[in-house]
Amino acid sequence: MSFRRNRLTKPIFNWAKGIMPPISATEKEAIDAGTVWWDGELFSGTPDWDKLLAMPPSRLSPDEQAFLDGPVNELCAMIDEWKIVSEDHDLSPEVWDFLKRKKFFGMIIPKEYGGLGFSHTAHSEVVRKVSSASVVAGVTVMVPNSLGPGELMMHFGTEAQRDHWLPRLADGREIPCFGLTSSEAGSDAASMTDTGTVEYGEHEGKRVLGLRLNFEKRYITLGPVATVMGLAFKMVDPENHLGRGEKLGITVALIPTTTPGVRVGDRHIPQYTFFQNGPLYGKDVFVPMDWILGGEAQIGQGWTMLMTALAAGRAISLPS
After folding, report:
1. What percent of the chain has pLDDT over 70?
2. Which of 53, 190, 201, 222 lies at 20 to 30 Å from 182 by C-alpha?
3. What CATH number should be reported for the domain holding residue 200?
4. 277-288 vs 228-236, strand pairing mode
5. How many domains would you assign to the chain?
6. Co-location of 182 and 261 in the same domain
7. For residues 319 and 82, which has the higher predicted lDDT (pLDDT)?
8. Which residue segment(s) compose the domain that 95 sits in?
9. Tens digit of pLDDT for each residue in 86-109?
10. Is the pLDDT at 42 greater than 90, yes or no?
11. What is the mean pLDDT of residues 301-309?
12. Mean pLDDT of 281-287
């Protein structure tokens, strides 16, 4: 064993390490984000099976079970998938209203902000059951509870941002979307060309330091109907207004879709499935600095935010 390790494995490893390029800062952030849960035991080579067996099964709370038995069943009964796909190409106005009134868009938002405060298990079960009646409805419920700004807001938003946005997201006054996917880069945030340049401009009649945004986002679920967008972009400060240098990294801001310069493009129909999806564009969109998610303290932390918080969408919502 020691001969193989010393004479074969180590030389090969050292040779490979010497020719492999170093990982980028973006890649390192992705690797360091989140946790490995019990899966790390498998890769250790000696998994502790007792630790896995000791984990209690996930169970729904009485409120979560009542929601599944009540509003979720009501929603499934309201949906006519054939009519959605063949005639309306959208959920009916009655279904949209029901989703808002029953707080389907606020399942993961804590109760103190007007949400339902459900667990990941309940979130998964709701999406699974709704999707069995309609993929369109399932995706519509899924996105605000995972790939939208709500979860990012809970993890990284300022107190003022949470107080303003979370109640409005919970009761459906605001419909969120998340603008990550770029026209030329897909969901590879490191390669996107969307920018936010630090400069002075006018906001609500006052000259303030803010961001001049230019972006092209595609395949944004709920984009055509969203009222607020979580926007990922590369932040630059060519005149060093903030004293941090020119390249400040990937950053996220909350942008109402009615902001001057924001334009909604023609709707997409992904795989002939009629959930709301489409491009969002921004040309010389000026916003104040306090629209940055988490404020100035979170400048350049956008990639860490995405890797840490949006994992719920990949691990919980999409499998459902």
Report:
1. 92
2. 201
3. 2.40.110.10
4. unpaired
5. 2
6. yes
7. 82
8. 62-174
9. 999 999 999 999 999 999 999 999
10. no
11. 80
12. 97
Last residue of a domain, one of 174, 190, 215: 174
One domain for residues 208 and 255: yes
pTM above 0.70, yes or no: yes
In this predicted structure, the answer to whether residue 161 has a pLDDT above a threshold of 70 is yes
Per DSSP, the three-state class of 221 is: strand
What CATH number should be reported for the domain holding residue 90? Answer: 1.10.540.10
- The whole-angstrom distance between residue 307's C-alpha and the CA centroid of its chain comes to 9
Together in a domain, 167 and 181 = no
Domain stop point among 118, 152, 174: 174
Task: Looking at the structure, tell me whether residues 104 and 130 fall in a common domain.
Answer: yes
- Are residues 192 and 70 part of one domain? no
First to last CA, the chain: 45
